[in-house]
Amino acid sequence: MNENDITVNLASTSKIDSVDFENLIFGTVFTDHMLICDYKQGVWEKPVIKPYEPFLIDPSAKVFHYGQAIFEGMKAYKDEHDDVWLFRPDQNFERFNKSAVRLAMPEVPESVFMDGLKKLLQIEKAWVKTGKGNSLYIRPFMIATGPGVVAAPANFYRFMIILSPAKSYYSGEVKVIIAEHYSRAANGGIGAAKAAGNYSAQFYPTKLANEMGYQQIIWTDDATHTKLEEAGTMNVFFRINDTLYTAPTSERILDGVTRKSLIDMAKREGINVEVRSVLVDELIQAAEDGSLKEIFGAGTAAVVNPIVGFSYKEKYYELPKLENPIALQLKEKLNNIQYKLAEDTFGWTVKV
Amino acid sequence: MNENDITVNLASTSKIDSVDFENLIFGTVFTDHMLICDYKQGVWEKPVIKPYEPFLIDPSAKVFHYGQAIFEGMKAYKDEHDDVWLFRPDQNFERFNKSAVRLAMPEVPESVFMDGLKKLLQIEKAWVKTGKGNSLYIRPFMIATGPGVVAAPANFYRFMIILSPAKSYYSGEVKVIIAEHYSRAANGGIGAAKAAGNYSAQFYPTKLANEMGYQQIIWTDDATHTKLEEAGTMNVFFRINDTLYTAPTSERILDGVTRKSLIDMAKREGINVEVRSVLVDELIQAAEDGSLKEIFGAGTAAVVNPIVGFSYKEKYYELPKLENPIALQLKEKLNNIQYKLAEDTFGWTVKV
Ligand SMILES: Cc1ncc(COP(=O)(O)O)c(C=O)c1O
Ligand SMILES: Cc1ncc(COP(=O)(O)O)c(C=O)c1O
Predict the structure, then answer these.
(1) Are residues A19 and A62 in the same domain?
(2) Which residues contact B311 (CB under 8 A, 6 or more apart)?
(3) Average confidence score pLDDT of chain A
(4) Who contacts B70 (Cβ-Cβ below 8 Å, separation ≥6)?
(5) In a 10 Å sphere around its CB, with 0-12 CB exposed, 13-18 middle and 19+ buried, how is residue B212 labelled?
(6) Which residues, 6 or more positions from B74, have their beta carbon under 8 angstroms from its beta carbon?
(7) Residues of B in contact with A37 (CB under 8 A)
(8) What is the pLDDT of residue B320?
(9) CA distance readout (Å), A317 to A177, A220, A241, A322, B296
(10) Would you say B177 and B308 are in contact if contact means Cβ atoms under 8 Å apart?
(11) CB–CB of B64 and A65 under 8 A?
């Protein structure tokens, strides 16, 4: 298939002029069009690009009852020549299909995911604004549309891509709490998949954390709560003295594109990076002896999200305020690659 | 609220005559009407009963992206006087709202859940067939309809009830495999909630088990895989000599209505019941020395699901074929209460 095999029904008018691009709230505004591709009993149908709008679905669709749903999160950036770029889209595509397998859903063909996305982005090019910090957030997702209230995989699925313009993500001063009771993933579970059900599972513990004044939770392994795993819906890095630590990916930890890109970049910068489990005890020790310099989350939405302090067993540990934290150095360098302001020596960027 | 506060729009014709009640496939046929009740920014609106049909929903609805969805499963039975009965509906209502809290969703008022259900059942009375084994499966569920691709609870929700006529559930000879790697719930996770995401997480491991010739998985604790927890989407009982064992409910185990009813009934029958964790090692030991007599799943759909054998570490253990297994004795007694063929000395049945 190539992109000519996509049916395109354009909207008669664009809502772009009604959007206040200076005051976007993340994930709330959508562009004029969406991509839909249905899977019926073993076959992917022809993708359709059409106006963004609600769609009809049966009350017994398995996505509602059994959470058979997966998604990805990626971004498109515009350079100074008005060209639109994706960042390592192959990684999101691969991860999407890994999630599909884990949720017993059909894999989406590359032609549908990639050609569909590129075609949609060409149509919505005006929604990608130039200027560092501006981007178009891309949400590919797949839901089980097949009917039936019996707990087994569906026969019908729908793959969709929707797009949401975003400003640079500033989440204020982020304080986190280390999970002592709740957890986000089980051994032998679906934590490594971008499965819908993983996220709503975090809402209640996060609400409790918010009520205590913390914006996010640093998740620990569910069996012992001794190993630090992820921060909210991001991977997490710790800087102790001049070494960066981050947990290895596992069944419980998402293989984040930002995480692995930061690791590669940091190594090339000559920064010492160790991929290994960090224990809560180590972190407390390092916070107490002053060797803990930084903690930051890593993910597509914020790229890097510096953390100013953390709480554990009702004690709050404040991180030092550094002149030139590694977190922000790496963010700057990664953003420069994404916006084509620096040479992409890794070959990560893909022109739309 | 009482049931007069429900808006009712009846279907112009019924499809009941086109349904082959002798050859129903579980969960695939739905009655003429459904109940819908929307929640908008803090307020439950008036419930509506209307023809069963697909509905419109935004592509960014949080149910699709974050699996914010819960459900219940219960049944209506008809006695010989054409009266319709529910079995311990208070338990399902309570559990539904516990699930809601864990998923950071609004609790549904009793008037909406109970009066709504009763009104809907009155309308669909003809769909509940007399005769043991026949029932109307009831699926109350709630989904996050609020839009937005940011991982946080929605502002809008939809509560619905749909109904599906069912024959007695016979699943053939059920062989199970004991989980050595995969698992269904984490410590500090959502295993005790009837959250949609728990179920699709089981699809892939169950598919692998099916390919190996096993119909279901007996789940073990995810940390050590040494404790026996649930069977498929049922609670599980083991009979060793003349004692029944079943795991205590926990964060990882659903508090099943059938499980607790069987415990109460068995105790009243003078059967020894111990609620405690059963170890895989114990089970193997008991299978080897011949003291393991029965294993059965317990849940609303099948009531009791006898298991004929299990596999562990590539070895298959066959269970003895008993004359009068406790599983079937208890099933018979529970069914007699549900169909009003025996006196309900527990006060479990509720007339619609
Ligand atoms: C649980 C979780 N961890 C980590 C990440 C970061 O992954 P990525 O860098 O690919 O966005 C995400 C997604 O954003 C996530 O959902
Ligand atoms: C995971 C799980 N365990 C056990 C059960 C049995 O619960 P109940 O007896 O209330 O149907 C169910 C639901 O049917 C379930 O989903």
Answers:
(1) yes
(2) B175, B176, B177, B178, B212, B214, B317
(3) 96
(4) B96, B99, B100, B103, B105, B141, B142, B193, B194, B195, B196
(5) exposed
(6) B86, B87, B89, B92, B137, B138, B140, B257, B300
(7) none
(8) 96
(9) 10, 17, 16, 15, 50
(10) no
(11) no
- Give the C-alpha separation, B263 to B321, whole Å: 23
CB B80 within 8 A of CB A76: no
Q: Tens digit of pLDDT for each residue in A75-124?
A: 999 999 999 999 999 999 999 999 999 999 999 999 999 999 999 999 99
Between CA A9 and CA B282 the distance in angstroms is 63
The answer to whether the beta carbons of residues B184 and B202 sit under 8 Å apart is: yes
Q: What is the ipTM of this complex?
A: 0.97
Query: What are the helix and strand counts (H, E) for chain B?
Result: 8, 21
Determine which helix (DSSP H) or strand (DSSP E) holds B98, and give its type and residue range.
helix B89-102
Mutate to test the interface with A, among B25, B200, B234, B250 (most CBs of A within 10 A): B200
What does the pLDDT read at residue B41? Answer: 84
Answer whether residue A284 shows pLDDT above 90.
yes
- Name every chain B residue with its beta carbon within 8 A of the beta carbon of A52: 59
What are B163's strand-pairing partners? B138
Domain range for B34: 3-166
Residue A111: DSSP 8-state:
I
Rounded Cα distance, B237 and B100, in Å: 27
Least confident range of A157-171, A226-240, A301-315: A157-171
> What's the pLDDT score for residue B2?
60
pTM value is: 0.97
Residues in chain B where the model's pLDDT stays below 50: none
Q: Residue B301: which of B10, B73, B54 has the closest Cα?
A: B73
Cα(B63)–Cα(A197) distance, rounded to whole angstroms? Answer: 9
- Note whether A160 and A11 are same-domain residues: yes
* CA dist., res. A85 & res. A78, Å (int): 6
B156 and B54 inside one domain: yes
Reference B93, options B38, B137, B138, B126; nearest CA is B138
Which candidate, B99, B116, B115, B97, places its Cα nearest to that of B107? B97
Chain B residue numbers touching A207 (CB-CB < 8 A): 104, 153
What is the least distance, in Å, from the CA of B39 to any CA of chain A? 16
CATH no. for residue A267? 3.20.10.10
Pocket flag, ligand 2, residue B191 (CB < 6 Å): no
Q: In this complex, which of B68, B150, B189 lies closest to A186 when CB atoms are compared?
A: B189
Q: What is the DSSP string of A280-325?
A: HHHHHHHHHHT-EEEEEEEETTTEEEEEEEEEETTEEEEPP--SS-
Rounded to a whole number, what is the distance in Å from the CA of A271 to chain B's nearest CA?
32
Domain end call among A166, A187, A209: A166
Instruction: State residue A122's pLDDT score.
Output: 98
pLDDT of residue B4: 66
How many Å apart are CA A281 and CA A178, to the nearest integer? 11
Domain boundary among A115, A133, A166: A166
